[in-house]
Amino acid sequence: MTESAYPSISSQLDDVESAREEGRRKMDWATQHMPILEAVREEFIADQPFAGERIGMAMHVEAKTAVLVETLAEGGADVALTGCNPLSTHDDISAALDAHESITSYAKRGVDDEEYYEAIEAVIAHEPTVTVDDGMDLVAAIHEDYPELIDGIVGGAEETTTGVHRLRAMDADDALEYPVFAVNDTPMKRLFDNIHGTGESSLASIAMTTNLSWAGKTVVVAGYGYCGKGVAKKAAGQNANVIVTEVEPRRALEAHMEGYDVMPMAEAAEVGDVFITTTGNRDVIVEDHFERMQDGVLLSNAGHFDIEVDLEALDDLAVDRYEARDGVEAYEMDDGRKLNVIAEGRLVNLAAPISLGHPVEVMDQSFGIQAVCVREILANSDAYDAGVHDVPDELDQEIAEIKLEAEGVEYDSLSDTQREYMDSWDHGT
Ligand code: NAI
Q1: Which of 37, 68, 74, 106 has a Cα-to-Cα distance from 48 of 20 to 30 A?
Q2: Among 3.60.20.10, 1.10.260.40, 3.40.50.1480, 3.40.50.300, what is the CATH number of 9-189+358-407?
Q3: C-alpha torsion angle, residues 375, 377, 382, 388 (rounded to 10)
Q4: CA distance 366 to 399
Q5: Ligand 1, atom 19: nearest CA belongs to which residue?
Q6: pTM tops 0.90, yes or no
Q7: Residue 74 Cα to ligand 1 middle (Å)
Q8: pLDDT higher than threshold 80 for residue 273
């Protein structure tokens, strides 16, 4: 591997030994609840599918991600990683990973923009043969600034909706020059991670950060996609009144038929107590909305980038701004109203000071898919041209089967007659 001038986490911490110990303790806990990665890890240790490969990763560096990173390293890879959000890294986990002889971690919490991109470049300096991204920043940096490395890259995998959107846009412009799996789009990922994971962990993070209850609150969920569905359902389950805002007519109708109030944000702004954006879009809550909001509202975002709530406009409107609690910034308006922003408008389930990200079981599924996608792209590289690829369904099923077995859940199989019937077209009435 090429050396990088940017320091790994180990040389950036005062007490690296105790950070490593604490990080390892958290990883051990996560491992106990990740039977899928456990099974995949055993296979990788035996088969060494990544021997001689260099994997570059930009992910939320916390305990569950660390189990994935180690699983890839123990399958024979040299891994270099950094964060995919300035606030979502857990330094102790990053330090524990950096202690592994085949892993270099540059991830650190609280980096500024310049350091964030320097750390990405440090990962790229390892000249990865495979990339694993959450949000596509690594793929973008390689294509924009290091195109000479592309020939050496076999392929990649992308974790989240926003990253897959960006990759598909790049692919449509013929600008994506190696194959990347859309891990986000598999059933085993998005039906669990985006829905249950984002729902549970966003609400838990907001409640823990504010010490406030959901019961009786009016919660405005912007976007009724996979993440929005989870947030709305879990908020309703905790006795909140849920309002949904949407721009897509079928999703607005779906929310209406689920029993939620659906209305434009301009109306929701006047009645909401808590706002959670989950659109993957920009400027969802803007100046006009801030002007209509009640005193004391909570503003948060669960989408990938911090552009859903227009904090610049809010800052312009504010006559004062101060930290109301750890992870909560109050913006005071000239009429005395205070609008409280959680985790700087960055994805709230990962970036608030006490956030832990999705529940472990959910990430076991998402990262199980990531792991087998890396195996697949290396084993069958000839089968994948440059561009975005759906994850082969048999890989998704493989992960579901491991999980069902670990949960002790048995299920039926098709009989030969049923299989034949399902595959035929000539059995009418
Ligand atoms: P999705 O595409 O299923 O849903 C987004 C929804 O937002 C769509 O229904 C769309 O019509 C709607 N929307 C777009 N612009 C809007 C606007 N201005 N107002 C109201 N609604 C609008 O995407 P998904 O999977 O729900 O992901 C959403 C975001 O969350 C993405 O940025 C994704 O990367 C991120 N994400 C975050 C996670 C977390 O841990 N916080 C986990 C998984 C995804």
Answers
A1: 106
A2: 3.40.50.1480
A3: 160
A4: 9
A5: 246
A6: yes
A7: 34
A8: yes
